[in-house]
Amino acid sequence: MTKRDFFRIIIKLFGLYSLILTVFYYIPSNISYVTFQFEPIVLLWLFGASLLAILVYVFLILKTDLIIDLLKIDKGFDDEQIDFGSFNSQKIIQLALIIIGGFLIIDYLPDFLQYTYLAFKKEVSPSGLNQLEEFGFGKITDYFNWVISGMNLIIAYFLLTNYNRVTKWLTRNEKNIE
User: Fold this and answer.
1) Left, alpha or beta for 21 (phi > 0: left; psi -120 to 50: alpha)?
2) Beta strands of the chain (E only): which ranges?
3) How do the domains of the chain map onto residue ranges?
4) What is the pLDDT of residues 64-109, one digit of tens each?
5) Which of 31, 48, 108, 145 has most Cβ atoms within 10 angstroms of its Cβ?
6) Is 150 in contact with 88 (CB distance < 8 Å)?
7) pTM of the entire structure?
């Protein structure tokens, strides 16, 4: 694998991970600000910032060669090749997708379980088990964040079970170039 291929993979994976975080974490968490106090300028700001962030991440995924050429990050190395043994670019992408899926599960499984517990607690005891709330363990049931954490777990499951398909999708343009 060449240095250029390695940097291409790293930039695409960073763009994919950042896009997932933006679409399924930052945008929904900022929408909650709009629901508390609806003002058109806040909605416009949220829409513009989200659109700009998504465009940057899509640019990172689709125009990696242009980024490598502009930053010249593949220049100045003694050796042109990186020896990963039996790893090729597809296996590195697959490994990175498994790691991203694992990070998503580690990040969102505790939140999902907490919101599930709080929703169950609310259904079982309408008073909310007040003795737990005194110690700070009880929180208001937040269905919005519960859904967001559930969606992130579904995406993590999708990444972990379909990493071959996602790898083929990410490397489809590289095969056309070669």
Assistant:
1) alpha
2) none
3) 3-177
4) 889 888 888 877 776 777 776 777 778 888 888 888 888 888 888 8
5) 108
6) no
7) 0.54
